[in-house]
């Protein structure tokens, strides 16, 4: 495996549960050394977190001043819009298997290849849009393994809200949830008109009354990285300070 510090690498991880092999991205920060244990940030739609969010640069800036703890960034990229619908959407045919892949197989791969802290609170899941929904899905399925999850403008429907209502261990979770104020009427990547603001507010109404760590922010802007990127610094501080 390529272990050059300060670079984004790719690896292939075989999944028995999905019966296929996934490309995984990983970033080892500058001055990375296996002598220290690291937190793990896992991003979904990872190529966008690197390209548009520039998450590794934001991490590096905070880390140089030792404002946050050591971490590696592991990512699951998407190969196409259709792929996201099958794997990241809660209504997708491969969604449940993909959640299991992350919760069991990907985690095992990470902990066996890198010197990680290997504790629930040392892991943070992140995603935007459908990938944000997926981050919440993994946390809901594995609250004692992945309690920390971030979702920028997730796709939410009534069935997804029911997943939260039927999870008895919400107390374990530490969620960060954002939605843009311009997302009441916009065109999705699939070219369909959508209202994400109303269902996200509905999810917020439920979560506000539950006994979990929960940060909810309504942001100026729409369903784009220009809205999400400025949040990354405060999120990294939120979980890794």
How would you sum up this structure, described in words?
This is Enterochelin esterase. It holds the Pfam family Esterase. This protein has nine helices and ten strands. With 241 residues, the chain is of the alpha/beta class. The protein has a single domain, classed as Alpha/Beta hydrolase fold, catalytic domain (Rossmann fold, 3-Layer(aba) Sandwich), CATH 3.40.50. The strands form two sheets. It has an eight-stranded mixed beta sheet, with helices on both faces. It has a two-stranded antiparallel sheet with strand order 8-9. α2 packs across α9, α4 (95-113) crosses α5 and α6 (158-165) packs parallel to α7 (197-207). The chain is globular and about 45 Å long. It starts with 6 loop residues before the first strand and ends with a helix. The mean pLDDT is 96.
Descriptive terms for the model:
241 residues, alpha/beta, Rossmann fold, two-stranded antiparallel ribbon, 36% helix, Mycobacterial_A85_antigen, Esterase-like, AB_hydrolase_fold, Enterochelin esterase
Brief sketch in words of this structure:
InterPro entries: AB_hydrolase_fold, Esterase-like, Mycobacterial_A85_antigen. With 241 residues, the protein is of the alpha/beta class.
Principal-axis shape equals globular
The parts where pLDDT drops under 50 for at least 5 residues are none
Biggest sheet layout? 8 strands, mixed
Q: Write the element-wise H/E pattern from the N-terminal end onward.
A: EEEHHEHHEHEHEEEHEHH
Query: Largest beta sheet: what is the strand line-up?
Result: 1-2-4-3-5-6-7-10
Any guess at the CATH architecture? 3-Layer(aba) Sandwich
Beta strand %: 15-25%
Mean pLDDT, to the nearest integer, reads 96
Beginning-to-end CA distance, first to last residue: 29 Å
CATH superfamily: Alpha/Beta hydrolase fold, catalytic domain
CATH topology: Rossmann fold
The whole-angstrom Rg is 17 Å
| Name of the top-level CATH class | Alpha Beta
Helical content stands at 25-40%
How many individual helices? 9
Pfam families: Esterase
Protein name: Enterochelin esterase
Organism: Lacicoccus qingdaonensis
InterPro entries: AB_hydrolase_fold (IPR029058), Esterase-like (IPR000801), Mycobacterial_A85_antigen (IPR050583)
């Amino acid at each position: 495996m390529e272990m050059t510090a300060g670079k984004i690498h790719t690896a292939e991880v075989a999944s028995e549960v999905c019966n296929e092999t996934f490309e995984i991205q990983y970033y080892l920060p500058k001055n990375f050394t296996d002598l220290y244990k690291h937190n793990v940030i896992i991003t979904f739609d990872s190529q966008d977190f690197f390209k548009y969010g520039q998450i590794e640069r934001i991490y590096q800036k905070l880390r140089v001043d030792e404002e946050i703890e050591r971490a590696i960034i592991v990512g699951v990229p998407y190969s196409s819009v259709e792929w996201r619908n099958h794997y990241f959407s809660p209504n997708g045919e491969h969604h449940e298997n993909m959640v299991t892949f992350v919760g069991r197989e990907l985690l095992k791969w990470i902990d066996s290849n890198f010197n990680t802290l290997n504790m629930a609170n040392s892991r943070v899941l992140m995603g935007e849009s459908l990938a944000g929904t997926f981050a919440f899905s993994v946390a809901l399925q594995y609250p004692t393994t992945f309690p920390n999850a971030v979702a920028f403008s997730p796709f939410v429907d009534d069935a997804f809200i029911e997943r939260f209502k039927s999870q008895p261990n919400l107390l374990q979770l530490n969620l960060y949830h954002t939605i843009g104020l311009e997302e009441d009427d916009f065109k999705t990547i699939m070219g369909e008109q959508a209202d994400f603001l109303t269902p996200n507010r509905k999810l917020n109404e439920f979560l506000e009354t539950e006994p979990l760590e929960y940060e909810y922010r309504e942001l100026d802007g729409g369903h784009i990285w220009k809205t999400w990127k400025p949040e990354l610094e405060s999120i990294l501080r939120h979980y890794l300070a």
